[in-house]
## 1
Amino acid sequence: MSDNKKRNQKVYLIYFIIAIFMVVVVFRVVNIQYGDVVQVNPFDSTATDEMPTRYDSIAPLRGRILSDDGSDLVTSIPLYDLHIDLTVPKDKLFNENVDSLAYYLANTFPEKTEAEWLTDLKDSRQRENQYFKIKNKVKYEVRNKVREFPILRERKYKGGFIEEKHSKRQLPWGLLAQRTLGYKRDGIRPVGLEGGFDKYLSGEHGLVLKQYVNGGWKPIGADYVKDPIDGADVVTTINIDIQDVAENELKTQLEAQSAVHGSVIVMEVKTGFVKAIANLTKGQDGGYYETYNHAIGTKSDPGSTFKLASLMALLEDGRADITDTVKAYGKYTFYDHTITDSRPQGYGKISLQNAFEVSSNVFSKVVYDAYYSDAQKFVDRLRTFGLGDTLGIDIAGEPIPVLKNRSDDSWSGITLAQMAIGYEVEITPLQTLVLYNAVANNGEMLRPQFVKEIRKNGQSIKRFEKDVLNEKICSDVTLEKVKLCLEGVVKRGTGRNLQSANFDIAGKTGTAKLVNSNRGYGDDYQASFAGYFPADDPQYSCIVVIAGPTKQIYGAEVSGTVFAAIANKVYSSSLGYHKSINLEEPTVADLPQVKYGNVAALTTALAKTRTSYNNNTNGSEYVVGISSENKVDLQPRIIAESGVPNVKGMAVNDAVYILENKGLIVRLEGSGAVSQQIPAAGQPIQEGSIIKLILN
Amino acid sequence: MKEVFKYLKGDRNIWVLAILLGVISVVSVFSFIPILVKVKGLSYSYLFFKHFFLLVLGFVIMFLVHLVPMKVFSRLSKIIFYVSIILLLLTMLIGESVNGADRWLKIPFVPFSFQTSDFAKLALIVYLSRQLVKRKDQFKEFSVIARYILLPIGITMFLILPSNLSTAALVGVFCFVMLILAKFPWKWIGLSVGSVVALFLLLLMIAKVQPDVLPRVETWRMRLVRMFSDESDPKENMQATNALIAIKNGAITFDHPLPKGPGNGVLKHYIPEAYADFYFAAMIEEGGLPMGIVIIMLYMWLLYRFIRVALKTENEFAFYMVMGISIMLISQALVNMMVSTKLMPVTGQNMPLLSMGGTSAWFTCIAFGMVLAVSRESNKETIETSNELE
């Protein structure tokens, strides 16, 4: 029994010892909680002074800027800065995998060899580097690859992988409308649409609460305090095709003329939407760049294009009519100032319409005589055409036009005569175009707009309709007459070289001497052409301004050719113009065009679009569609059993499916449907060989 | 209640305590879930139901084990021990790595892996209890005790050592206690303890000179060095310090007269293993000192009941087994508490039944079941003897 008693004593002694340990633990807890084992309590939210928590913002993705058909003009692409916190991976993980990590890094980022990566990684771990740089600004795909590398694939908490996301603006079309699209950078006033629509594009920053823990800021909790809201997409009115034509034609002419700068604006007559806007300025190296938005921001003496305004004023005020005979003798003297015609001997006695068409400066005399006694009346009339006001466009940088009043100090005896032919007046090309557009649009003056819609996640959140500045700038009678004159310019006058076989252009040439640094008119010219087309049913208005041409100076030759080229291309590529031809015929165009494809996919599509079709495929998997009068005939597409199948015209996924089933390896180039295949159809198949598809 | 206890034989206190700990465990899981969702990307319901399911299954296992006659354990002790040695060897060779140490063995065809050392500990306790009874008259013969007692302990410790130093040390502790209780000659105890310590020091020396040969040993050495120096270490010291901050954060003061409550602690955001290795710190942050004391009291009460079971039984084998299990469980809890309060270097020991330890909870349940089996049989004896007396 004493044995048992001894055993019990031992057991209770053990219990007692354990109890002592437990008491020690309790004391330790008390000591930690109320003593100074830990100096500060950074988690304690009451100690606001030292509390190292902070809100950090999370940048949203900036919205895209799209063309009128929804293709990207400006997008944000995400870029990543990649680092490793080398103190995070445990010894075993690090030691076992550092070799292969170095191998993969060297493969992806060859700026360091495998051995260099290895030594760097090991040294930095030795130095407890918490921010070892792998690479900055890598693309999404590269980052996806890197984060599957050994160690890094353990991610943040075990592998120490740190990735920081930025986004970079990218213009997929390069120079195209670059200046109008604009940019936003820190510390610089934002420019163009990036600036004008910043409030939509920028989105809202998210918030995350972070705490300072062991030398680093770490997010608290799994959720953001506030999620970032990505920016909305801005759908512009810019049409890539028209923009491309405008820019190329302008560039060709600028290079040919070695001019200083030039601008083109194309506007949709009925909406005021700007379909293209190009600005090219000669750079230091002689090349042309989109460096300044002259079309919007540079006001200058418009020259003869302004005669439209003078003519409208004369007609509207009943001071003259286009049938009036004027004495265009080539020399018009006002006090000590003489204005001459470009043809020194003049044109003789001609009608006012004729004078407009040949751009005679007799207009100075006509206006001077008509408004001699009440010059302010002329200015006021011009103002009713909106010429003294800014347009209030979306893009910053529009200057206030100069339109002198009779009472102004700068008003002189010759001012009235000068204004009549577009001098001592300063307006921008866009402001001039708005007047021409109003004439084309039967007197309704529209604000030029660059954006037609704001979209968020594909949903339209705001639409921009046409914005009327003035419902009727002049009477219909006046409109009829000025239109006649504008058409005459191309038919008989200075714009004869703009004639086109298919459609008529209406417009006005202009050649102005530019104000030089002495505030006088110097030897530099500005050639312009403003107008609209087709003359009988105006769709687009356009202005071309080229400053400082060196070979020729006249508007028709310098700018008119650009105008004509743009008009021709827009006309020929624009379906809208061919309506009249198709209108009469009961049409095949109502049927969707069916090319080639999988039978199941095609029949589904046809059923969805409620198109009737005959299925003559006899169970063939791939079919070709032939549109007949009101039906689509589906015929089997013969895919040669032997030899490489013909996949031209097919959608990529169908083509790849067919080819890979034949045991070929497909390589793709470009995007879109298949336009070419190498080797060609019918060639014998070698399994495992490569077939190249060129897509368009 | 009586109805329930009709089926739950053995010490009722132990049953109640086990269920109480289980309930606390389920509640505390709620507070740990957010960080697991964040770090491991698992879903809320998955984590909750997994733990709940594991625990319920654990109690079923506990119930089944407590019905097993003690004789079975005694008879099977040798086989169980051999199986455990094989499993440990397998773990060394093909084990899964958790936090850089191979501790887990995947069970074929089941989506679980388990820590073989959990099994080996129980196996060794059963085996040792049997041998201490069987060889008690041969303690003087070195060849016998070396072969049947010291060598098995040594092998088990040695096989656990590479993956988990602290578990191996705890094995040493409960074997040490069991040997003392068995009146094992002091000179052999001293000699074995001495040689284990010497061997360990030798390993440390090797690790210091040639760190590449024994990577784990170098980690332990660094842990020990850091424990006794102010040199700040990026990761583990951060864990330890954060645990202290969490405990301080859980202090009940005049400004915060109430504990934060489950789910309101922040420690778990900074320590990946808060739900296991730093359970005690996380618990105190949310429950304050009172919760810490409650937990300690629960464990001490449990230990007391275990000891009562051990002292009550007439069966010597059962006595050793229950004492071994008691020391194993309480030392695990104590290590967790001491690591959490930085009284010890960082190491991973679960709070028995409380931590979210996955399958290791099942082995705790098996251990409980074994104790309850002993208690059930001695209750029966008492009833029988009292019947005889009548």
## 2
Amino acid sequence: MNETQDHLREEFDAYVAADKKIEPKDWMPDAYRKTLIRQISQHAHSEIVGMLPEGKWITRAPSLQRKAILLAKVQDEAGHGLYLYSAAETLGVERADLVDDLLSGKAKYSSIFNYPSLTWADIGAIGWLVDGAAIMNQVPLCRCSYGPYARAMTRVCKEESFHQRQGYSIMMQLMKGTDAQKAMAQDALNRWWWPSLMMFGPSDSESTHSSQNMKWNIKRFSNDELRQRMVDMTVPQAECIGLKMPDPDLKWNEEKGGHDFGEIDWTEFYDVIAGNGICNKERLEDRNKAHNDGEWVRDAAIAYSEKRKEN
Amino acid sequence: MSDNKSTWPLWEVFVRSRQGLGHKHVGSLHACDAEMAIGNARDVYTRRQEGVSIWVVPAESISASSPSDSEALFDPANDKVYRHPTFFVLPDEVNHM
């Protein structure tokens, strides 16, 4: 039995190392299945919880066009959550159980969504920086070894670049406005910059899942590599519209061909993950309320379909 | 753990991206009946004109071949390369056949 398992495991490792794709019914090591369920469901939860900070601004968007755009963006996030739950279910888990884990607080979601969206400029900063960081993380996932996840990410990435551009366009417009509007944009950047860099996860030396996930082609680049790319991509975008990066240690390093930047406050990162962020409690309460308020609708839909089957 | 009463069955979704092409599998979703599955599929999988027609199929109704049978099913074609036209070498003078 163990010999068979070892043999299957060797075949699997060689297959994945050759950059081939695994599909739902193929044999896979338990740890591969588990790590994918964890990652894909956390990713799905992040899309769903991610609707909350932006959803709050739909009714307060400054124009009808901005409102329609934000509404479409938030609807996309719901769609992304659903593509991902669908991919997770191919690994043999029930969606209802995944949702229960989110609602009970057992499952994690991206800690960035535990920060509040205080002003309209935050909607710009979220699209530009948070979706920007998400794209940086997600583009390599389009080549992930697990087929359904890779296909879901391809759809997500196509839609995500609209999100980033609409965010940047909000910032651009504010930076062409009054002094107060410029200050609002700068304030949003100041508050969202560091949490956005934390989205790439702990530094490579501290990251617990990285090396095995690299071997399995679930992860293609290290947290620090992706973070560096994010910094190098964003700095000129900020400069271009007259925003100042909130990092006194930020400077171009000719030798490495990238920016040096300041130390991330990892105490804050772990604190928010542990549940002590500004909005952790509010987000879970909002999700639970939405789920509970919708229960009668789900039950009624089932009752209606059963009644129609009888007739 | 989850309340079965509120769990809608799983449907696989197939979308025809434009007239002239076949329906292609795009993912799955939950819905209590076919009508709702089509409505949900429209919202989840065709927000950007990705489709002109949708099929939804209860996931439990799909029968699939097993990866362990793939050798028996698909390997016999390996040694029948003569089924491809490139197996036959033509004289240079014969350009199109």
